[in-house]
Amino acid sequence: GFALASVWVHQVGDRVLGEKDSRKLVWDELAGFMVAVAFVPFTWQIAVVAFFVERIIDIVKVPPANVIEKKWPGGWGVVGDDIVAGLYTLVLLQLLIRLAPAWCGLSSTGIG
């Protein structure tokens, strides 16, 4: 739901502001972050790692995010590349949780 709302916000916002992917709108970033943390236990350590990793992946535009941003129209491309960055981040977080649970603020059996 939030991702679709983000597409709409960017469609309308870009038209009103007269610029594509305006820095004044961050719904796409929030959608990507929400995907990144959707299926992991939420600790402050995971939140910090997710934020920075998702931003780096979004800035670098790891494929297919680079294609989505350029080829998909309007808000679909603006939000789509962040969703891809969120998915990559989710995979990396899953690996990190399994390899270093204590570093993520988790015990070997879960949170705490």
Automatic annotation (TrEMBL):
UniProt GO MF annotations: phosphatidylglycerophosphatase activity
Residue stretches spanning the membrane: 30-53
Signal peptide: none
GO biological process: lipid metabolic process
Keyword Transmembrane helix in annotation: yes
Residue ranges constituting the YutG/PgpA domain according to the UniProt record: 3-96
Keyword vocabulary terms for this entry: Membrane, Transmembrane, Transmembrane helix
InterPro entries: PgpA (IPR026037), PgpA-like_sf (IPR036681), YutG/PgpA (IPR007686)
Protein name, entry field: YutG/PgpA domain-containing protein
Taxonomic placement: unclassified sequences, metagenomes, ecological metagenomes
